[in-house]
Amino acid sequence: MLENVGILTGGGPAAGLNAVIYGATKAAHEAGYGVIGIRHGWRGILDGQIMEITPARISGIANKPGTILGTSRTNLTRVKIGKGSKTEDKTQEVPVFMKTHKLCGLIAIGGEDTISVAEILYNQFDLPVVCAPKTIDGDVCGTDRTFGLDTAANWVANAIRGIHEDFASTGYIACVEVMGRKAGWLTLYGGLAGGSHVILIPEKTYVMSEIADQVKKVVDRYGYCILTIAEELKIPALISKIQEGAGPDSFNHAQIALREKGWAKVLAEQLQKSTGVEARPIVLGHAQRGGPPSVLDVIMGLQIGRKAFELIHNGEIGQLVAWVSENPVPVDLKIAGGGKFKPIPPEIYEPLLANLDL
Ligand code: F6P
Known about the structure:
Keywords: Cytoplasm, Glycolysis, Kinase, Magnesium, Metal-binding, Transferase
Mean pLDDT: 97
Number of strands: 13
Low-confidence stretches: none
Strand content: 15-25%
Number of domains: 2
Number of helices: 13
Radius of gyration: 22 Å
Strand order of the largest sheet: 3-2-1-6-7-12-13
CATH topology of the largest domain: Rossmann fold
Cofactor: Mg(2+)
Organism: Candidatus Buchananbacteria bacterium RIFCSPLOWO2_01_FULL_40_23b
InterPro entries: ATP_PFK (IPR022953), ATP_PFK_prok-type (IPR012003), Phosphofructokinase_dom (IPR000023), PKF_sf (IPR035966)
Bound molecules: 6-O-phosphono-beta-D-fructofuranose
Helix content: 25-40%
CATH architecture of the largest domain: 3-Layer(aba) Sandwich
Largest sheet: 7 strands, mixed
Shape: elongated
GO molecular function, one term: AMP binding
Oligomer: single chain
């Protein structure tokens, strides 16, 4: 008899991951199932790295950042072989793994990348997978929100609130760089709530001279300026100044955190040159992912986790547990999968940006 549920977490850590693990495990134990944690995302399937998730193991984890399972960016469809660039599709190892560990279902918690692998496993092997939408980037399709974004946005807002008086005292320009890849949710929400004067998001294309004019106006009015900028921007005249570091990850995303020179530095240099005002780059970095989980992310995580288990128990597989109108709701994986991502639509960013205090 297949009596266990498997759980894994993939991609970058985000608040709420442990709450999902807790919610799903609690519900599974109540129903008499065992729970097997797969370590470090999809990689744990290849390495056979597992841990039994017992009631003692989940005690007190729901409000802790990170993930007790560990995570990785392993893409099962393109697993690196040896030291060169050769890759192999290892998806066929998942059905074998599930049989070995008597898994009647697999809960894959992650963003667009983790979800796209789960979708392939469901379509090609008919595997009983259910996903949970995690990411501080907020860019998973088919869900109103992803858990992790709220905590990270609060953390970003507090970091920005914390530098206003410093920059007001020195009269400098701050270029605060925020994670989020090609989506500006974290930059927009955190930047606006933090009281930034200028916000630049990846969804828009900017002209450097216009940014400089805007910053000059802010400095003339307030004596300093705080810009919150996304880690990916479209400022065509400056793109050649961005220096790449390591190559792309296994999902073909640029590893932005490893860049030798990113947008904060490039923009600060440029603004100092064009305004004559001293400018400082501030890269918020991985601390954005580590703040204490917000109430919303914990509550979402617990409900999504429980729902994910219920779907497996009821045989409603191939679903993402989306967050829709404040409820955990199953949506077809094809809506969220296929490598799609959700940028901020103009009808959301335009009115929010109109609130900037210029
Ligand atoms: O996708 C989540 C994310 O936090 C991005 O916002 C960021 O660019 C990336 O992960 C950083 O990845 P890493 O953990 O590999 O440095």
